[in-house]
Design a protein that fits this description.
Layout lengths: L3 E6 L3 H13 L4 E2 L8 E6 L4 H16 L3 E6 L1 H4 L1 H6 L5 E3 L7 H4 L6 E3 L20 E4 L1 E2 L10 H5 L3 E2 L2 H13 L4 E5 L14 H9 L6 E4 L9 H4 L10 E3 L7 H6 L6 H13 L3 E8 L6 H11 L6 E6 L17 H25 L5 E8 L4 E4 L5 E5 L8 E4 L3 E2 L4 E4 L1
Parallel strand pairs: 1-2, 1-3, 3-4, 4-5, 5-6, 7-10, 10-11, 12-13, 13-14, 17-20
Antiparallel strand pairs: 8-9, 15-16, 15-18, 16-17, 19-20
The chain binds iron/sulfur cluster.
């Protein structure tokens, strides 16, 4: 009987991709989605905030108490790997560049610490995505930006891009295995091909020619990456009608403190243009970064209306040791941050509802992903959640909806 291995994946879609790669590289072990029956647990960690470190450490302690044999990888291996290894609770620590060796590493008798090469280029191919209806494609790794609050460039390395032929082979393998929706992912996805005469838009055009590719989504882009070549693909039928473009804030003074490259005026022009073209628009936004006075917050909330946002990933600033922001003053207290977070969420929730009402005449193209016990759940081309009542098993199916209700939170339909 092969020992059973459970993958605990923290953090972002890039980690989801990396876990899938490791699952595919196992030969003498069996992957289980049931943590309790696992002999071995791979902790694919995140270290984006101090809070992420606490969650990983808490999970390691919990699994150690259950007597699991533990291995640590992911971004946390670079920041907390040594201290967790020294605790004696971890059999082995390995960096992302070593993940293809996982089958051998798990069989190593002695404990090991192999952090590997921070600037390796991934060339792994996965055949499937266990438990998923859409496929995440890692096209890029690392980041050359240096936002003051962010540790990622130090744990994922500088920006570099995967080989185009490998990416296209990856997509065609997954498409021939039934996947129709592809989410491009990476640390700073939009910097794909930079300095190598390649562009993400060109790559997406080539992907769209592969049989079975129906919809392409991009994990997250930076405002400056919606350049001329990207604007050429905005009307393509295979491109989602939603774009996630990370601004992080809408006050120029806060953007300066964060060492961001974007500024509000150019963001407003860009988002205005995309809104005019019917896109749903999402962003990342950090609330409570040091220096976010009441005046700057009010300014940010005034500015945010000109961005026509329909989706948001809001984060409460969380100090990350080793980053410039960690020593900045004045810090913003948690209650104030929570109030601001609530105000921001409510603003975007209302925008999303208005957007869905304004689009009610547009047929929705939904990829159904799961069943919540009552209704099927999927996402439409605007990346809005759709709940569907049906007697048929719709999971993994694409359905077109002309007739649906715009509910407070979701679009609702019968099929
Ligand atoms: S763009 Fe900024 S926030 Fe994003 S990974 Fe790079 S440094 Fe971090």
């Amino acid at each position: 009987m092969k020992p059973k291995v459970f993958f605990k994946t923290f953090g972002c879609r890039t980690n989801v991709f990396d876990s899938q790669v490791m699952m595919g590289a196992l030969r003498d072990y069996e992957v289980t989605e049931n943590e309790s029956e696992a002999d071995i647990v791979i902790v694919n960690s995140c270290t984006v905030t101090n809070g992420a470190d606490v969650s990983v450490r808490g999970y390691v302690n919990q699994m150690d108490k259950q007597g699991k044999k533990l291995f640590l990888t992911g971004c946390g291996a670079h920041t907390k790997g040594e201290s967790l290894f020294a605790s004696g609770k971890i059999q082995g620590v390995f960096g992302q560049s070593e993940k293809m060796k996982i089958n051998t590493l798990l069989s190593t008798e002695s404990r090991f610490y192999e952090i590997g090469d921070l600037n390796y280029i991934d060339d792994a191919i996965v055949e499937e995505f266990i438990g998923k209806s859409r496929a995440f494609i890692k096209i890029q790794e690392g980041c050359n930006f240096r936002c003051n609050y962010c540790i990622i460039p130090y744990v994922r390395g500088n920006a570099r891009s995967m080989d185009e032929a490998k990416i296209l082979e990856q997509v065609s393998r997954l498409a021939s295995n039934g996947f129709g929706e592809f989410v491009l992912t990476g640390t700073n996805v939009g910097s794909y091909g930079q300095g190598e005469g390649r562009s993400i838009a060109e790559l997406m055009k080539k992907m769209s020619l592969i049989r079975g590719v129906r919809r392409i989504r991009v994990g997250s882009l930076e405002p400056i990456q919606i350049n001329e070549s990207f604007q050429e693909i905005l009307d393509e039928s295979w491109l989602e009608r939603h774009l996630h473009i990370a601004i992080q804030h809408s006050s120029n003074e806060m953007l300066r403190l964060m060492n961001r490259r974007n500024r509000h005026q150019s963001d407003a022009e860009l988002f205005g243009m995309l809104h005019e073209r019917g896109f749903a628009l999402g962003t990342d936004f950090i609330v409570g970064h040091p220096g976010e006075s009441d005046t700057l917050w009010r300014e940010a909330m005034e500015n945010i209306d000109s961005l026509h946002l329909t989706h948001i990933h809001p984060f409460t600033y969380s100090k990350r040791d080793g980053t410039p922001s960690a020593t900045m003053k004045p810090e913003i207290n948690g209650t104030v941050s929570a109030q601001r977070m609530a105000e921001l969420n409510e603003r975007i929730r209302a925008n999303n509802h208005l957007f869905r009402k304004s689009m009610v005449k547009v047929p929705l193209e939904v990829l159904v992903e799961s069943y919540d016990g009552q209704r099927y759940v999927g996402y439409d081309q605007f990346f809005n959640k759709v709940l569907i009542e049906s007697q048929e098993d719709l999971i993994g199916n694409w359905i077109a909806l002309e007739d649906y209700e715009v509910d407070d939170e979701y679009n609702v339909a019968k099929f």
